[in-house]
Amino acid sequence: MKFAVLAFPGSNCEMDLYNAIKDIIKEDVELVSYKNDSLAGFDAVLIPGGFSYGDYLRSGAIARFSPIIPALQEFAKSGRPVLGICNGFQILTEAGLLPGSLQKNVSAKFICKTEPLVVNSNKSMFSSAYQAGQLISLPIAHGDGNYYCDQDTLRELVTNDQIVFKYANNPNGSIDNIAGIINKAGNVLGMMPHPERAVEAVLGSDDGKGVFQSIVNHIKSRGVIYE
Amino acid sequence: MNSVMDQTTEATPEQIRDKKLYQSMGLTDHEYGLIKDDVLHRLPNYTEVGLFSGMWSEHCSYKNSKPVLKKFFTKGKHVVKGPGEGAGIIDIGDNQGVVFKAESHNHPSAVEPFQGATTGVGGILRDIFSMGARPIASMDSLRFAEPKTDADKYFIQQIIAGISAYGNCIGIPTVGGDTAFDDAYAHNPLINVMSVGLMDLDKIEVGAAAGVGNSIIYVGHKTGRDGINGASFASFQFDSEHESQRSAVQVGDPFEEKLVMEGCLDVINNHSDALVGIQDMGAAGLVSSSAEMGSKAGGNGMALNLDLVPQREAGMSAFELMLSESQERMLLCVKAGQEDEVLNVFKDHGVNAVVIGHVTEGHNYKLLHHGKVVADVPVDSLASQAPVYHRESAVPEHLKNADSKQYQPQISNPTETLKEMLGQLTIASKESIYETYDTQVQTNTVVAPGSDAAVVRVRHHDKALAITTDVNGRYLYLNPRVGGTMAVAEAARNIVASGAVPLGITDCLNFGNPEKPDQFYELDQAVMGMSEACEKFEAPVISGNVSLNNEYDNVPIYPTPMVGMVGLIKGLEHITTQDFKQAGDLVYVVGKTEAGFNGSQIQKMQTGEIAGKLFDFDLDYEVKIQKLVTEAIQHLLLNSAHDISEGGLITAIAESTFGNQLGVDLASELSVADFFSESQSRFIVSVPQEKQAEFEQLVGNDAQKLGKVVDDNHLFVQANDGYFDLDVDKALGIWKGALPCRLK
């Protein structure tokens, strides 16, 4: 199977994702420029962290108008997995692929540390490799990670089992301790923590491997039948 | 200096001479005379005076420090490039080089902390990638006064926010550094940043422009009226009558820098046949980068057409265009005929790039503006013929009759003294600072901030780099020479504790006014002391930076030569951290403890001052102890190793318990006071029981067993005249809580 890692001007975790997939998950992976207008041939799309366009207007707000975005929206509509991490999550909410938005952390500061998370749902194609309720450690590194949505949306997220990861000790003020959510169809995940930074024990944790392994399992179990 | 003065209102050459207008740009009568009589043999015009004021500033010319810098030990069999280029390079095998340099941004930060800090980070990164290296880690070394007022707290928070904003955005991890507090830095805070890059050795680039007809290409942000003549400004001293010089401070844009960096690395890696040279536009902006580039190539001149320089605002004068320190700009020299190839690379990366001039016959540096020649001077006169001053040196008053008796700590309740020590800002945890830095991006950070040295692995190789910054200005205040040696020794101790062997150092020499003999003495002595240690550790100086005139109302800072050291770890299994790992491990102190109290944290804590003669230091013994610890690590005998420095042995023991919240049960023949001594050449290490015999045989009498790591979360240390007795979580609470509490 083949992963696409999108790269926007100002992305800075694209190589980390690329290396994680290539060296650790050992699957095919290719960097795809924001200038492209097609995602044909890929089984899953990863949107990396960073500061696309400097995050100068609002995190993810400018990247959302890149040439690649219509192709991404098409790709998502087809049901194939799309994972946005950190700035990638912000881009997904800006592009209307996930509900809610990411606000400034309540501390008003950037926070980088390894946080305990609870796997709130292991029924998604991104979390099947974990146990439900499992406690994992993943690094966070963001200034705008405070997830917010209105109460109706939150009720919907809960009812549809769309909340995949929750913080054990909410570090940024997110509503309902939300660290990662999927769309209603279940094939688009946005999460603030960085699973790609936790795929090797030498770097402190390999708890993040499960996210990528789940995607691989999902694709391989159903065979490559897209397109 | 009127920075918005345009050409029509510029002073005439005669007015500059008669009214001595050059003085306000930082040139002395003597220097103006040299330009007029020896270099040009005519009166320089306004633009030319500006060019010389920037290029002959201390910041660009090192005119006061050059004779001192020559004393540095810079040789070594692994040195690929020593001082002189943007950054130095050391060979680490496998055709790989590690590139590193440090830079101070003290003056801009003092005036505008957030932008001063961001542009400090941006500048040092450009030095690294202009060599052809990809930056892999940054460090910051900060010195502040103890925060008292809301303004003090705001200042510190803005510095940290600036470093965080720039480094996080561009995606280069800030993996460590050091922060200390002392009122000696009240009006001259020190903001030093270091960056480390990695490169393939067959891709070295130099900042030289050669070959008549080759093109000079300007890359990056447009030039604006920010930071006009900042290099000259940085070389002034502050006083209470000149508080506001904000117009001399630049504004940083990390997003632009990221694009510029990717574009430059693309050109260096994939279009090297077109590229002749590349240089950062840093201090003194366009004039500095172009004149240095022209001068280094040798044998040719350069002509620039300033009308082609991308400009942020209308009506900028030649003076402003040449002296602006607008950020995120680079200058390239590209072979004639291959300009489009390079311009297209930058276009693809979304970066401005334009040809602004050419390498010419002859030796002159010629600037055209609005169709007129606005400057025409010998290129070498700007870049390499600044006057060099051999300053007078005299022993400072406070050293003349220093009391040789060591301070005696007053301790009635050892546990209370330890608690007080853990709450001192210099000792306390800096977590609230470094958790605002992205320490992990690039996914190579094996040891994040909080241990002795940061460790960043070299991907796809079984090796890693250890990085540290260190200096204790108090030691140098009491003895600049020995203190300088100690700064390098402590850096090496941190490198060794992490499992590495020192490769080399960079430095930021933060000192007072070199024109005052007692302050020049400190610089001169410190460099000699540092150099001696560098030679002993085989860790040459490969790059550095000088920040002089750090004085306020005639009082200088403590002499503070920041040492940034990089070490190599061959084999990831040698990576060692300071935290005790498991109950049952045996705890040893390696190296002997002596009375080291003058200049210590406990002297400051108990008396409020730093005084007396600095305690003794034996460099050969230091080397011996460090070699023992290296050998123990390489034989896999240690589960932890931690340098003993500020706060002494008891502080190092407490810090070693924090990471995994393990306790200790220790006893020693030392007195309670000895536990606060800062005598050098010591480590606290833990050894698994099955390695006891092998370890003891290796270290012999150079280590004393103190006891064991225990799992009851309790720190108990018996001294010969009392004991320390404290819950680890309580100690941890004090240590972690002190800084956030004082910055609230």
UniProtKB/TrEMBL annotation, chain A:
Part of the phosphoribosylformylglycinamidine synthase complex involved in the purines biosynthetic pathway. Catalyzes the ATP-dependent conversion of formylglycinamide ribonucleotide (FGAR) and glutamine to yield formylglycinamidine ribonucleotide (FGAM) and glutamate. The FGAM synthase complex is composed of three subunits. PurQ produces an ammonia molecule by converting glutamine to glutamate. PurL transfers the ammonia molecule to FGAR to form FGAM in an ATP-dependent manner. GO terms for molecular function: ATP binding; glutaminase activity; phosphoribosylformylglycinamidine synthase activity. Pathway: Purine metabolism; IMP biosynthesis via de novo pathway; 5-amino-1-(5-phospho-D-ribosyl)imidazole from N(2)-formyl-N(1)-(5-phospho-D-ribosyl)glycinamide: step 1/2. Its main location: cytoplasm. PROSITE patterns: GATASE_TYPE_1. Gene3D superfamilies: 3.40.50.880. It comes from Lentilactobacillus parakefiri. The active site is at residues 86, 194, 196. Its EC number is 6.3.5.3, 3.5.1.2. One of its GO terms (cellular component) is cytoplasm. GO terms for biological process: 'de novo' IMP biosynthetic process. It is found in: Cytoplasm. SMART domains: GATase_5. Keywords: ATP-binding, Cytoplasm, Glutamine amidotransferase, Hydrolase, Ligase, Nucleotide-binding, Purine biosynthesis. InterPro entries: Class_I_gatase-like, PRibForGlyAmidine_synth_PurQ. Part of the FGAM synthase complex composed of 1 PurL, 1 PurQ and 2 PurS subunits. It holds the Pfam family GATase_5. It catalyses: L-glutamine + H2O = L-glutamate + NH4(+); N(2)-formyl-N(1)-(5-phospho-beta-D-ribosyl)glycinamide + L-glutamine + ATP + H2O = 2-formamido-N(1)-(5-O-phospho-beta-D-ribosyl)acetamidine + L-glutamate + ADP + phosphate + H(+). This is Phosphoribosylformylglycinamidine synthase subunit PurQ.
From TrEMBL, chain B:
Residues 84-199, 450-568 form the PurM-like N-terminal domain. The keyword Cell division does not apply. CDD domains: PurL_repeat1 (cd02203), PurL_repeat2 (cd02204). Keywords: ATP-binding, Cytoplasm, Ligase, Magnesium, Metal-binding, Nucleotide-binding, Purine biosynthesis. It is an enzyme of class 6 (ligase). The active site is at residues 59, 105. It catalyses: N(2)-formyl-N(1)-(5-phospho-beta-D-ribosyl)glycinamide + L-glutamine + ATP + H2O = 2-formamido-N(1)-(5-O-phospho-beta-D-ribosyl)acetamidine + L-glutamate + ADP + phosphate + H(+). It holds the Pfam family FGAR-AT_linker. Its main location: cytoplasm. Residues 16-63 form the Phosphoribosylformylglycinamidine synthase linker domain. Substrate binds at residues 104-107, 126, 250, 325-327, 547. Pathway: Purine metabolism; IMP biosynthesis via de novo pathway; 5-amino-1-(5-phospho-D-ribosyl)imidazole from N(2)-formyl-N(1)-(5-phospho-D-ribosyl)glycinamide: step 1/2. The keyword Coiled coil does not apply. Mg(2+) 2 binds at residues 127, 280. It is found in: Cytoplasm. Mg(2+) 1 binds at residues 103, 545. Residues 212-367, 582-718 form the PurM-like C-terminal domain. Part of the phosphoribosylformylglycinamidine synthase complex involved in the purines biosynthetic pathway. Catalyzes the ATP-dependent conversion of formylglycinamide ribonucleotide (FGAR) and glutamine to yield formylglycinamidine ribonucleotide (FGAM) and glutamate. The FGAM synthase complex is composed of three subunits. PurQ produces an ammonia molecule by converting glutamine to glutamate. PurL transfers the ammonia molecule to FGAR to form FGAM in an ATP-dependent manner. Monomer. Part of the FGAM synthase complex composed of 1 PurL, 1 PurQ and 2 PurS subunits. Belongs to the FGAMS family. HAMAP family: PurL_2. NCBIfam families: FGAM_synth_II, PRK01213.1. PANTHER family: PHOSPHORIBOSYLFORMYLGLYCINAMIDINE SYNTHASE SUBUNIT PURL. This is Phosphoribosylformylglycinamidine synthase subunit PurL. It comes from Lentilactobacillus parakefiri.
